[in-house]
Design brief:
The protein is mainly β and about 130 residues long. It contains 1 helix and 7 strands, in the order βββββββα.
Length: about 130
């Protein structure tokens, strides 16, 4: 007897590890300019993959990263916290792979982060605290 914890969608074809790919990679900076809302969608899979996510600033320096091990679903949303001072353009890279098998080509998404306009943002408050 098998127990399904999630109800499978009708007529859904799940891909083999060789065919599993990232289909959507997008990101939206939060208004504070310090966090990034990331969306990843993959082909529905038979075997759960791993995903490495890396965020580089305009100088090519790593400012955030995460590793996702065997996600339960093929649509993922999460927040990355951006380290350091913003240096545009930012490049988000996501690589789907299997530790014992195939890996897909990395997907990239390039964007700019606008500095916060609100004088009560964390950047302005931190600047005031530094000068005190």
């Amino acid at each position: 007897m098998t127990m399904d914890f999630f109800f499978p969608e009708d007529n859904l074809e799940r891909t083999t590890p060789e065919e599993t790919r990232i289909t959507v990679l997008s990101a939206q900076p939060y208004p504070d300019g310090r966090r990034l809302h990331v969306n990843i969608e993959m082909t529905p899979f038979q075997k759960r993959p791993h995903i490495d996510v890396l965020l580089n600033n305009g100088n090519g320096e790593e400012v955030a990263s995460t590793n996702i091990v065997e996600p339960m679903g093929w649509k993922i949303e999460f927040t990355l916290h951006i380290r350091g001072e913003p240096k545009n353009p930012f490049t988000l890279e996501a690589k789907l792979f299997y530790p014992d098998g195939p890996s897909a080509e990395p997907q990239t998404y390039t964007f700019d982060v606008e500095p916060p306009q609100d004088s009560t943002s964390s950047g302005s408050v931190r600047g005031e605290a530094d000068s005190a």
